[in-house]
């Protein structure tokens, strides 16, 4: 994969006069009387690589669904001052807000190039696309191929790609649509270690000049690549800040341990700036490190190692999709 931008993501984003931003205020979502998301506030600037984490059923995917118009919501979601709530899905996409799903949505019978070309033509008329010669590949498509590392596989059917490559293709389909806000739902679920590393590096490259929000359960991936983290519990924001700050937050530890009811916070949670924690050597990628105390390992009732926090693998039924499974070994270009 190639370098797309020299501007790296930083904690809090690269806020400036001409920066894009996404501002969420009082976002709430209800399903048949159940409040899946409750009064959520988020401020995301261009250049922020923000991870949304939390216990299962915390509302992470539902927030993305609400922002992109897939579920009705109350409150306010503005992209650079333009209100998104109440708009249709395709209208929100045309405003530069794109999202991926846990299972890559690509046209498997078509080539990698054709998938990108169709995505790039989303805003063009059918007549314009038909008039273009087959050999003429839009510059945005060529750029995306290089960025996602699939140039040598451009003529391969998308269905023959490895699992990780399909996810990269879907990200590329957002890039050719010039999405400036990318909402990614568990982009590394089912990936090999090599694919996770390449995906993280891809997000760093494209994130410097965009706002990238990642819903993730892989704690090691979060520690390696997040510039800031928002922790959700029971549909509400529990904590926000750098990786180190949220790991040390007693309320976060309590929510993951489940030892007592999480006390409600009444004050706004500030976003920490200028912090970027690296990965903890040897840490399990599904645990959130914490300073001291006993934790429950993911999916088991046995205690985890001291100073680590796990989470249960099952999600609240009907509110968050199951993760995708691993695909074939990565093909060499």
Can you give keywords for this protein?
alpha/beta; 2 domains; disordered C terminus; ATP hydrolysis activity; ATP-binding; four-stranded antiparallel beta sheet; 12 strands; 333 residues; six-stranded mixed beta sheet; Rossmann fold; 10 helices
Report on the structure:
The protein has 333 residues and is of the alpha/beta class. The chain has 2 domains: 165 residues, P-loop containing nucleotide triphosphate hydrolases (Rossmann fold); 79 residues, no CATH class. Helix content is 26%, strand content 20%. It is built from 10 helices and 12 strands. The protein has a 6-stranded mixed sheet with strand order 6-7-8-3-9-10, with helices on both faces. Strand 1 and strand 2 form a beta hairpin. The longest helix is centred in the middle third of the chain and has 15 residues. The termini are close together. The C terminus is likely disordered. One of its GO terms (molecular function) is ATP binding. Keywords: ATP-binding, Nucleotide-binding, Transport. InterPro entries: ABC_AA/LPS_Transport (IPR051120), ABC_transporter-like_ATP-bd (IPR003439), ABC_transptr_urea_ATP-bd_UrtD (IPR017781), BCA_ABC_TP_C (IPR032823), P-loop_NTPase (IPR027417). Pfam families: ABC_tran, BCA_ABC_TP_C. This is Urea ABC transporter ATP-binding protein UrtD.
């Amino acid at each position: 994969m190639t370098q797309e931008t020299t501007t790296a993501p930083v904690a809090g984003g690269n806020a400036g006069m001409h920066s894009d931003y996404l501002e969420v205020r009082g976002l709430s979502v209800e399903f048949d009387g159940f409040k899946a998301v409750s009064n959520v506030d988020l401020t995301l600037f261009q250049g922020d690589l923000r991870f949304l984490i939390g216990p299962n059923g915390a509302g992470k995917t539902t927030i993305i669904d609400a922002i992109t118009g897939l579920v009705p919501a109350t409150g306010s979601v503005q992209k650079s001052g333009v209100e998104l709530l109440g708009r249709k899905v395709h209208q929100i996409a045309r405003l530069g807000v794109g999202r991926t799903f846990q299972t890559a949505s690509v046209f498997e019978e078509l080539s990698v190039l054709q998938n990108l070309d169709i995505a790039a033509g989303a805003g063009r008329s059918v007549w314009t696309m038909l008039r273009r010669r087959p050999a003429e590949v839009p510059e945005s498509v060529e750029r995306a191929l290089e960025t996602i590392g699939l140039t040598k596989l451009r003529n391969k059917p998308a269905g023959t790609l490895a699992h990780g490559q399909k996810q990269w293709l879907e990200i590329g389909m957002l890039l050719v649509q010039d999405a400036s806000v990318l909402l990614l739902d568990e982009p590394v679920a089912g990936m090999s270690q090599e694919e996770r590393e390449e995906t993280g590096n891809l997000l760093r490259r494209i994130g410097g000049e965009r706002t990238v929000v990642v819903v993730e359960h892989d704690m090691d991936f979060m520690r390696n690549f997040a510039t800031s983290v928002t922790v959700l519990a029971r549909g509400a924001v529990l904590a926000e800040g750098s990786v180190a700050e949220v790991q040390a937050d007693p309320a976060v530890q309590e929510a993951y341990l489940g030892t007592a009811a999480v006390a409600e916070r009444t004050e706004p949670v500030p976003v920490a700036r200028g912090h970027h924690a690296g990965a903890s050597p040897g840490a399990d990628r599904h645990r959130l490190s914490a300073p001291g105390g006993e934790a429950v390992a993911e999916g088991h009732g046995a205690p985890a190692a001291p100073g680590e926090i796990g989470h249960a693998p099952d999600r609240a039924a009907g509110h968050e999709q199951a993760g995708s499974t691993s695909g074939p070994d990565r093909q060499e270009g």
